[in-house]
Amino acid sequence: MRLYGYWRSSATYRVRIALNLKQLHYSYVPVHLVKEGGGQHLAEYQKLNPAELVPTLVEEDGNVINQSLAIIEYLDEVYPELVSFLPVSPLAKAKVRTLVHDIACDIQPLANLRVLQYLNTTLQCSDSQQKNWSKHWIETGLKGIEQRLQSSAGRYCFGNEVSLADIYLVPQVYNALRFSLDLDNYPLIQLIYLNCNQLAAFIAAKPENQPDAE
Amino acid sequence: MRLYGYWRSSATYRVRIALNLKQLHYSYVPVHLVKEGGGQHLAEYQKLNPAELVPTLVEEDGNVINQSLAIIEYLDEVYPELVSFLPVSPLAKAKVRTLVHDIACDIQPLANLRVLQYLNTTLQCSDSQQKNWSKHWIETGLKGIEQRLQSSAGRYCFGNEVSLADIYLVPQVYNALRFSLDLDNYPLIQLIYLNCNQLAAFIAAKPENQPDAE
Q1: Contact (CB, 8 A) for A123 and B129
Q2: Which of A102, B82, B178, B197 pairs with A204 at a CA distance of 20 to 30 A?
Q3: Neighbouring-strand partners of residue B153
Q4: Where in this chain does the record put each GST C-terminal domain (chains A, B) (predicted)?
């Protein structure tokens, strides 16, 4: 299968981790989100993803799936071998999903490229206003997550098995570090980030280890 | 069970639709998001939801679940009777989830109350800048969704059965209409919105039909 993405896109990073955890082979098709107005807006890519965002997964038989979370839950269902991204009990599953949506809905979409571009271009925000914006939403989100983790974390976000929540947390923390966020305020998040990044699947998925890294 | 929410919150609206479709009885606990700095920030509520957002579902046995999507997927799993919010095939499920995340991740979080408050207070954006901001993200999102629906819609977002996608679409369209968005540019979305709003579960969930409506 083919994964269309961008090295520094959090959403692509999540799918890379998921594919690696499942040990699924894929070819990586870089879509440069900035150069020449952004490859995600080209007609050819727009056919694969009308939302003009990355990532997109295209299976060998031609099935096209957009949205990182839809892709990852699909992979988990179709390839149940090796690891499961969600616990079995409905309540435990809900707890993991809560952490996932804290990031997927309430942090990442607010501090991503297209929003910063709008702040910069349309609202003419200064560099420091843009930086404060990102930091504000990341800090607000991580504060709530740190509190949730007090009742769920073990070695990872939910006990001692890697789950969907870790697949979401690691790219978000990577992004937070780009904004020089001090992780000392989030000891559990910091610990889980370090633990995940000892695993081969997470290391291979890092932005700097992608062929399109700059 | 108890649902903590706010009449005009999209995320609460979704959960109300889901509870109604499953014909589950619940008591509704209003959390006023604006008055006196916002009830979601009070210590008592923060214990239920560290993210200080609505909704929160509290089950009779005391289980607490945050994040609308985690709540709704939980309800669907625990109460499989009457209707199922997701189709059976993994690929169909992924298609429905893509539509859900288009809204839950890429539209709603950008145009919600706390973001508009930040634009207003911290960035000192004018009323028209705030309105344009919301319209921009809603229009960008709905444009992609309208295109996706061309290959999935029947009477509802995904064929002729109500799914999770409709539970997300209706509150988003309701919100778009508050920003005077012209739905004529989105004929499938408009049609599905009208079809859903003929169903008792959707009518009873409307913001204006809640006890805390103003």
Answers
A1: yes
A2: A102
A3: B159
A4: 89-214
